[in-house]
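Entry 14. Ran structure prediction on the chain below.
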Amino acid sequence: MRDKRQPSKKSQPPQTTDEDHGAGLRRLTEAEQHGPTFRIGTRLRNYFLTGLIIVGPVGITLYVVYWFIELVDAWVKPFVPEKYLPETYLPFTVPGVGLMFSITALMVIGALTANLFGRTLVSYGEMMLDRMPVVRNVYGALKQIFETVLSQSNNTFQNVGLIEYPRRGLYAIVFISTDTKGEIKERADNGDGLLSVFLPTTPNPTSGFLLFVPQRDVVILDMSVEEAAKLVISAGLVVPDYQKTLKGLADKARPQRRKKPVPAETA
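Output, structure tokens:
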């Protein structure tokens, strides 16, 4: 007869060997040894990346500014008399002297060409350039670019939009310049209106394509031109905060809702 007090096989605890105990202790020891080291290494890496994010843009900006100042000084200083250079009286070189002389010279030229005499000289100079076959094309293109970029009366770009480019299903950011005018509008417009847009390239947004797109094919975005430029330059890594934009629009809409009169209930 079977003894009922005898424990069954299911109730017996699993038997462990000395080898299993040794393996468990080794895993625990390795976790205790490598855990803090791993956390310290991760923290040091995060510190390094944070410092790189802070110092990188500042350092590159300072380097570009210094390079530009040195470039202008190398061009302008040979034309400046030595008695006006600080190096003549100081034992060290002062950077930015050529840049200051360049800014002053540009202001003087702008003041001289603002009157009738200066505009007449400029007109005669442009007439002489127009007679040169190759020079007139280069001068005309550069003049138009500078007038467009540096003009203070018109905004270069109005809005930011999305178009399907280079094929359906793929979207690209474009900067909307203005409504298409002239011969292109008369010959290509099918009645819906055309927009002149600039499609920038990544990561250099100064180059791109000029496209004339129907208005119905352009999706106007809420982001600003500066935010879109950052998005293009960073290759999509710097994305503007869309929720913040929505919150701003909602805050502007709340006062308008409060001002609206509540309609009276009709029986």
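The chain has three domains: 38-112, 121-154, 159-240. Will compare against last week's run tomorrow.
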